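Supplementary material to the annual report.
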Amino acid sequence: MDIATLREQHPDHWKLASAIRALAMDAVQAANSGHPGMPMGMADVATVLFQKHLKFDAKAPKWMDRDRFVLSAGHGSMLIYALLYLCGDAQVTLDQIKKFRQKGALTAGHPENFLLDAVETTTGPLGQGISTAVGMAIAEESLRARFGKKIFDHKTYVIAGDGCLMEGISHEAIGLAGMQKLKNLVVLWDNNNITIDGRVDKACITDQRMRFKAAGWKVLHCDGHDPEDIDRALTEAQKSNAPVFIDCKTIIGFGSPNKADTYSVHGSPLGDAEIDATKKIYGWDHGAFEIPADVKSTWEAIGARGAAERGEWEERFGAISATKQAEITRMMDGGVSKKLAGAIRKFKKDNSEAAPKVATRKASEMVLGAINPAVPETIGGSADLTGSNLTKTADLGVFDPENRKGRYVHYGIREHGMAAAMNGLWLHGGVRPYGGTFFCFTDYARGAMRLSALMKVPAVYVMTHDSIGLGEDGPTHQPVEHLAICRATPNTWTFRPADVIETAEAWEMALTTEETPSVIALSRQNLPTLRTKHTNQNMVSKGAYVIEEAEGKRQAILMATGSEVEIALKAREILQAQAIGTRVVSVPCMELFDAQDETYRRRILPAGAVRVAVEAAIRQPWDKYLLGERGRETKAGFVGMEGFGSSAPAPELYEKFGITPEAIAEKVKSLL
Amino acid sequence: MDIATLREQHPDHWKLASAIRALAMDAVQAANSGHPGMPMGMADVATVLFQKHLKFDAKAPKWMDRDRFVLSAGHGSMLIYALLYLCGDAQVTLDQIKKFRQKGALTAGHPENFLLDAVETTTGPLGQGISTAVGMAIAEESLRARFGKKIFDHKTYVIAGDGCLMEGISHEAIGLAGMQKLKNLVVLWDNNNITIDGRVDKACITDQRMRFKAAGWKVLHCDGHDPEDIDRALTEAQKSNAPVFIDCKTIIGFGSPNKADTYSVHGSPLGDAEIDATKKIYGWDHGAFEIPADVKSTWEAIGARGAAERGEWEERFGAISATKQAEITRMMDGGVSKKLAGAIRKFKKDNSEAAPKVATRKASEMVLGAINPAVPETIGGSADLTGSNLTKTADLGVFDPENRKGRYVHYGIREHGMAAAMNGLWLHGGVRPYGGTFFCFTDYARGAMRLSALMKVPAVYVMTHDSIGLGEDGPTHQPVEHLAICRATPNTWTFRPADVIETAEAWEMALTTEETPSVIALSRQNLPTLRTKHTNQNMVSKGAYVIEEAEGKRQAILMATGSEVEIALKAREILQAQAIGTRVVSVPCMELFDAQDETYRRRILPAGAVRVAVEAAIRQPWDKYLLGERGRETKAGFVGMEGFGSSAPAPELYEKFGITPEAIAEKVKSLL
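Predicted assembly:
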C-alpha cells in the first residue's frame, strides 16, 4: 500500500505509525549513528501489533502473563524505544529518546534487557532474538501445562529481518520450534529485500515461506504497510496449531523520497534535508522529537489497553492457593528452591562415604538425580547427546507436543539453538535451564553463551568430554582452548570439578546465582572420589582450596583442576617420597577464587614455594597464578597442552602429551 | 531394497559393499570404539559413487582435477578408510585399518586432512564438511572460469547425515550454494532417521527435500540400498544447473539383525556375536579384516578407473604454456606470488611518507588495493559487511553465477558458512581466501575457525570493529574476550596492527604462510601512522618490537596493540615529561613474538623495568608478559577491560573504562 492511499484510508493509523517513524529519524539524526530504515519499514506492522494484538500493560512491563515482544532485528532499536515512549513506559522518557546511543542512556545502540524492564532480551547479534524467543515459547507452554491457562496463556511475538533468517542459528531455532509445535510463537518477517551489501538476492535466493513450511510452521503473508491486511494476518495467526511465520512485505525507510528501498537507509542517519522531505511526504508537520498531544494520548491508551485484562488476571492469580502463588512467584523471580541446599548436603554426605569412582559426567547425572526432584523449575536437555552428557534423570518426562509437563528437551543437533533457547527459558521466567553438549562444541554455541553472560542469565552449560581424556574421537572433539575461552568471557563461571563432591558443589553454585551462567566441564573418564571427608561447606564456592597439604617444609604447590587433580596428587606422592613437601590445590573455579579476598588467596597460594599448574588444556588462564604478585618472586611451571590433541585411547594420550605424575614431579624438581 | 533381493539381483555390487561393511564392523570392534552404523548404511551409495561416478585415481590422490569427496558425517570415518584401503590408496594399508583410532595411526577417530592425502578435509564437528564443500565448489567454478574446463572440470560430492543438516551452519552453506548455483556440488543425504538420542522426529520434523528446494537446489531421491536407483539419481545429478541434493533412504547398521535401524549401532561396536550374525546375513564368510582376493582386485580396478582420464588430463595440462602451468601449479600448491613482497615494500614506503590518519580497517583496504593485483589467487568476501570491513577492492569483480571470474564473494549474513567456505577454498587449492566480519562475530564462526587452525588452512579473517572503539553499537558488538580467544587457539596468528604500516606487514605475514590462519583485528576509528620511517624489514614478523625507546634511564615498559599503541605513546610523553624513562613496545602478534629466540625476547622486554600492558580487552593473554620469567622480579600492571563494554561514542568509552594516557601514567607511577 502506498503512502497516499494509506494516509487517505487509514488516517488514524497513519498518525500513530508516523510518530514511530519520526522519532526513529530524529533520534538517529541526533545521535549521528543508528539504523532508521527498519523502524520506518516496520512501523505499520508494529502499530497494528501493539494496538490490536499484543497483550501488555505499559505500566507493568514485568506482568508475568504479558505477551513477549522480541525485536530480533535489534539494530532497529528505535522501533522499540519509540513504542515504549509512546505507550508511556516509565523508563523510556522523551529525554531518553533524545539521548539515544549516548553514554549512560537506557536507550543503548541495541536493546539491552539489563537496561530496560520492557526489553525482554538483548538483541543485536543477528538471529539471537528469534532463537531466544523459542525458549520463551517453550517456557510458556511448560508453565501453562503445569499451572493452568488461567495463569499462563500468552504468546511470543518476534520481529525478524533477513539477517536473522540467514544466520545459521535461525535454522536451529525454527527446526526446534516446528518440531515442538509452538503455536504460541509468531514471527513477523520484515521482508524488505535489503541487507547492508545491497539487495538480498545478491547473497540469498531462499524462498523463506517454503523454508518455514518445510520446518512445520504455519505460513502467512501480508502487505506490511496495509493495517487491515496486517490485522487479518495477525488474527489468523491466533488460530494456528503450529508456530506462525508472517511474511510482511515492507519497504525499508518507507517514505524517504531518496533513500527508501536502498541500503543507504539501513545504518546511517538520513540527514536533515532528507528528514524534512520525508516528513513532508508523511504529512508530519512537527519539529524534531515533537509528538502532538492527540497522537501521544492515543498511544498511551494503547499502552493501557491491557490494564483491564491484567486486573482480571490479578484476580485469578489471587484466587489460587497462597502456597501456589508463592511458588509461582519464587520461580518467576528466579529465587532458589529451599530444598536445594538440603539435597546437596545429603548427596555430598552419602557420596563422600560411598566414594564412587565415576566420570564427573556420571557424577553430574547422580547430582541431577538429587536436584531435579528438589528444584521443580529445572528444564534440562541435550543437543542430541543425552546418553553422553547424562543430563536426563529418570523423573524428568520429555517435553514435547504430547507432554508439555515434561522437563527434558531433546534439542536436536542444535548447540547454538539450544543455548539461545536456554536464554529464553530463563528470560521468560519460571524456569532454570540446563543443557549439555561436548565441551568442544562450546564453539558452536558461543554466540548465545556470550549473551547469557551479558544478559546475566544463569543458564547451566553441562559440557562433558572436557579434554584429551575423551580419547579416540581425536582433536576435533578434544577441547584444549575452551577453558581459556570460557574463563576469558566476563560474568561466566567455569567449573571443572575433580570428583563427585566437587561436581555437586559446582551444581549448587550454578543453581543459586541469579546472574551468572555456569559452564561445568566434565570428564568422560572415571575419577576417584577425592573428598572422602564430608563437610557441609561448599569448597567450590571458594574457587580454589587446599585438597592435600604438604608434609614437612612446603617447597612446592601444585594447582590442578578436574581429572588432573588426581594426577597432581600422585605427583605429590612422588615428591613427598623424595622429601619435597608438596601442597596440592584444587582449582574448580578461577572466577570464584579471584573473587575471594587477598588474605584467602594468599593463604591458598602463599609465596616462597615453587608453583606448577596442571591442566590438560592450554596455559593462558594459568599465567596469573604463576605470576608472583607485585614484586614477589615465584618459580613456576605448567604441565598441560601446547597444541591440539590426537586420536588414541585416553591413557596413551596423557602419556603422549606428558601429563603424568612423573612429568609433574620432574617439572617441580627442575624449578627447585 | 532388502538384503535378499540385493544379494540375488546385484551379487557383484553386494560383495563390494559387503567388504566396506565388514571392515567397518571389524575395525570398530578391534578399536572397541567408533561408529559402525553409518558406513554399514551408506556402503551401497558409496560403492556406486566410487564405481561409476567419482573421478579419481587412487594412486594420485592430489591430482588437481579429481572430484572431491567429503565425508561430512565424519564419525563414519571407517567408510572412507575402507574405501581407500580397498581402492589401493598408498597410505591406508590393512595395517592402518587394524590400527583404527590407535596412537599414531593415520586412521584417526575422525578423518583428518593432515594425516591422509586422500582426505580432502577434516570432518567430525557436524555440518563442517558440507559447508567446506561449498568452498571447494566455488574454487572449482572460479578456476574453471579462469583456466578453462580442460584443466578444471570436476565435482564435489558430499555424504551428510541428519546431524550435518540440523546444524545451523548447514543452513548458511546451502543458502550460499543455492544462490551461487553451484551445479558442481552434489550432496548425498544419509537419510536413516536415526540420531544419537533416537529417531530423528524426536527432535526434527523438517522436510529436508522441501528445505533444499526452498534454497534453490535440485532435489532427487533414491533407495540408498538399490544400486540401480542410486546410479539413476547420480546420473541425473550430472545434468543439473543447480547444486544437487539426493535424499538416499537408508537403514543405519544395514543387515545387523538386532541393531539395524536403532541408535545402538550408531556409536558403539556391535560385539562379536552380532558381527557374526550380521556377516552370516551378508553371506560374508571371511574372518576379521579378511577381504577375498577377487573382491580386492575388483575394488583396485575401481581405484584405477580414473588413471586413463588422468593421463588424458596430464596431456592437456602439458599442452598449455609453461608459464601457465607454473602459475597454476604454484597456486594449487599454495606458494606465494613473487609480486607480493615488492607490492608490500612499495606500499610501506609510500605510506610511511604519506602517513595517513586512517582506521586500520581502511588501511587494510588500502593494502588490499596493492595485494589483489599482485596476488591473483586471492578470493575475498564479507558476511554482508562489505562497506564496514572494507574487504572489496575496485579490481575484484563479484563472483556470482553470471561472473565466475569475479574474486569477491557476497557471503551473506553467514559468518560460520563463510569461514567454512574459506577452508574449502584453500583445501581445494588454487585460492587464498580472506573474508571479513565484525571481530565480535568471531563467536559465530568459531567452529570453522578452529578447523582452519587444526587443518593448517591459512585463511585470513579480516575482523574489523575490534574493540569498544566501535562505539555506539554497544556491548553485543564490542569484543573484549575475542583477542584472548584467538590467542588461546593453537596455530592461529592474531594480529592487531597499530597503523597502516603494521597493517601491511600483518597482511604480508598472513599471505606468506602455508599453514597458519590469521585473524587481523582492525579498528573502526582513525589512527595516526606511527611508523613514518620506512624500513623494508617486516617488523610485525617479530611479533613485538620497540616502537619508541626510553629517554634516560629506562624505568618503565609499556606494551600495547592496535589502537592502544597511540595511547601508550601519549602516556610515554607524560612519563618522560616527569623524567620517567619509558619504552613503548608494539605487540602486533603475540604468537610470532613467542616464537622468537630468547635473546630477542629479552632484548624487547628486559628485566628491571616496570611493565604495563595496554589493550582495550581483557588481561588474560598478557599475564605471560607481566610474569617475570624464571625467578625474575617484575612489577607489572594492566590497563584494559574487566568486563563488557557499553553503548556510547568511542572517545567517551575510553574515558569511562579508564584507557587513557593519564591512567596509564598513573598505573606506571603506582608501580615504581
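The mean pLDDT of chain B is 97.
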